[in-house]
Structures are given as structure tokens and as C-alpha cells.
Amino acid sequence: MAPTPSDDDLTLLRHGTAAQRAELAALAAADPGVAARLAEWDRQDAALRTLYPPVADEPLPERLRAALTEAPRSRLWPAAAAAAVLLALGFAGGWFAGRIAGPAGGDLAQAALRSHATYVVETAHPVEVAADEEAHLIRWLSKRLGQELRAPDLAAEGFRLIGGRLLPGDAGPAALLMYEDALGRRLSLYLTRAEGSPEDLRFAEAPGAQAFWWIDGNLGCALVGDLPRDTLRRLAIAAYHGLTDT
Amino acid sequence: MPQPDGIEAAIPALRAYARALLHDREAADDLVQDTLETAVARARQWRGDGTLRSWLFRILLNRFRDGLRRRRAAPVVALFPDAPEPPVPGDGEARLALAEVHAAMGRLPEDQRAALLLVALEGLSLAEAAQALGVAEGTLASRLARARAGLRQMTGREDPAPRPGKGSRP
Which residue of A has its CA nearest to B21? Predict the structure, then answer.
């Protein structure tokens, strides 16, 4: 008799094509262990469906109906509300400093990761100025940073600019540009004046977000998101070229 | 571009999924509201790769992770308070068994719980669920197998030892 397939293999067959499910039925007929495992999985599925039935017999709350039609409001989903309040307090009072510690990467990366964590969860107002006023946004941020800025075009990687905001940075104002893709994944590009020597692309991370950061001329830059490292690096290089190429 | 009707039709499934994921009705509807707002706002960007529901679940899961990230960055807010058992039909023993599954789901790692609910509760295909979770199908299959093994061990329904099993219960 053939060796009993692993649970991973059984899972692939169970959710596979008709031919794969037929193969699985044949395996189960020949091997009581497989049959018992499949019966157990069926029981688990039935228990979950009984526990968590579709919410169809309850009236649809007005706020969910409204969500389908209205322009979204700025809101955190409040399962995290208590934490968000603490975060807001911490952001104002410095409590948050050091909570997100990158294993490498200095103040710039930490400030960028903190800002990302603060604003990425905002549904509709992650930005003060939306991308439809891009020229105004960039002029304003450039003026406040005392440094000519540009918003890199990341459309080739599927991310479009949704806007930006001005932040208090450690050494003066900082700018945050936010991008989003069709899946709602967000990136933030953090820009601030930086003293000191140029830095090549460096990596830093915090729980739930990673950053590539660099210093070029007087500008410190960090691209933050929760994406595979290679993807984020590619985006960071695109952002670097977008900021510097003439 | 998905029709609002299509999104609306998915609401009962999204609400059930969010409840099962969070074990908290209010928080679940908050998450669904956030998901719907994002979906409506991003509808024009949806390129129709994959199914509408895998896209909606993917948005929901991205928002769910944003919430988790927030929670981890701050002092712990209990994700799974001792949730009241959902009202379930059945006699004493069946109720107990279900309550046990409910509690065990709460102790599974979030990624396993999210994956198992997509296929077992919502009936997504392996391909759809993999797309919603942003992982490869093989990765998803082993995550599912681990989730099921975890449930088995926590509910004590069967000996965790390898097969052959002890025969199924009625």
C-alpha cells in the first residue's frame, strides 16, 4: 500500500479539481486513516458553519448600508479604539518614542515607522491634502521643509499617490506622502531634512511594517509598508529615482 | 468594476466572517463597515483579477491586520475577551462540543484562524483564499492543515497521534 499522504497533500486534494477529489475519495476508500481524517475535517467545517452562520436574518445596520453609498468618513475601526487613543496620546507626548524599535536604522527610520503606523489605518483621511491637489501639496511641503520635493510616480508598481501631510519631525518639519494600491495596501514615503553623510539604502523594521531609508543631499527619505522585502526595495529604488532624477 | 449590488450581496458573509474572526459583534461590524467603505472607494481600481469576494476578503484582511498592528504597538487590548458563546441549537453535549470549538478557534494563531474560516466557513476555493490572504496555495494548504490539527488537539476530540484514527463518531 502506498504511504499515507500528508495532511497538506490531503488538503490540496480536498479543495482541488473534480479529478483530485475523486482521487481523494479513492484514497479514503483504501485507507481508513484517511477516511477518519476527512470525516474529522467535515465535522470541523460543520461545527464552524453552525457556530458562525451568515448574518442574513438580522437587519442590516444603517451604517453598513450607508457605507455602500456615502463618501467614507475618517475613522479607525474601534476594536482598536483604546489602543488608538493611547497611540494618539503617545504621539503627542512622546510616549510612543522607542516603542517601535528598529534593529537598525536610526532616528529617521524610527520616525518614519511611527508615522506610518499612525496614519496608515485611517480610512479616508490619512492625508491632509489629497492627490487631486498634488501641485499645491508639493509646493506647500517643499516650502515648509525648505527643500524642493517631488512626489515619485509609483504607478508602474501599482501604487498611486493619495495625498500627503506635514508632520513634526525631530529636526524640523517632515513630509509624509501616502500611496495606495488597488488592494488597499498602503505605503508611506517620509521625507525630512537631514544633516550628515549620505546613506545608501538601508533596511529597518517594526512589528507589522518595514522600511527602506536613505539620505541623499540634505534629504532623509524612508519608504514604509508591509510588503515583501524585495517588493519594498524595488519601490524604494523607484522612489529614489523619482525624487532625484531630473 | 464591481456593481454595488455585488458588494451588498456579500455583506452577510463578510459579517459572519468578521464575527468569527473577532468574536465581537460590534468590532466585527466596524471592520465590515471599514471594508465596505474601502471597497466602494476603490471599486474603480479593481481590475477584476480573481473573484469579487476574494477581493473583498482581501480588503477585510488588510484592514484586520492594520487593527492588529495597532494593537501590538500599544499595550495589549484583549482580542478575544471571554466571548459569550453564540447561541447554538442542539442538546447539552452538542452545545458543549461547539463551545469547545469556539474557544479553540480563539486560541488559534490569527493567520490560521483567518485561513481556516475562509475555506471552511465561507467556502472559498483554495485559489480564492490564497488570493485573499496573499499567499501561495501550498503555503495555505499547510496553514490549513496546522489549523485543523490545532483544533483537533484543543478540542480533544481525537488522539493527536498519527493515523489511523480511532474511528469516527456518529
Answer: A52
How confident is the model over A136-167, as pLDDT tens digits?
888 888 888 888 899 999 998 899 998 888 88
d(CA B56, CA B16) in angstroms, rounded, equals 14
Interface of B with A in 13-52 (CB under 8 A): 13, 15-17, 19-20, 22, 24, 26-27, 29-34, 36-38, 40-42, 45-47
Q: What total of structural domains would you count in chain A?
A: 2
We report the CATH number of the domain holding residue B118 as: 1.20.140.160
DSSP-derived letter for residue A152 is -
**For chain A, where are the E strands, in sequence order?**
129-130, 160-169, 172-180, 186-193, 199-206, 209-216, 219-225
Secondary element (H or E) of residue A56: none
Domain that holds residue A58: 1-67
For residue A131, what pLDDT band results from cuts at 50, 70 and 90?
confident
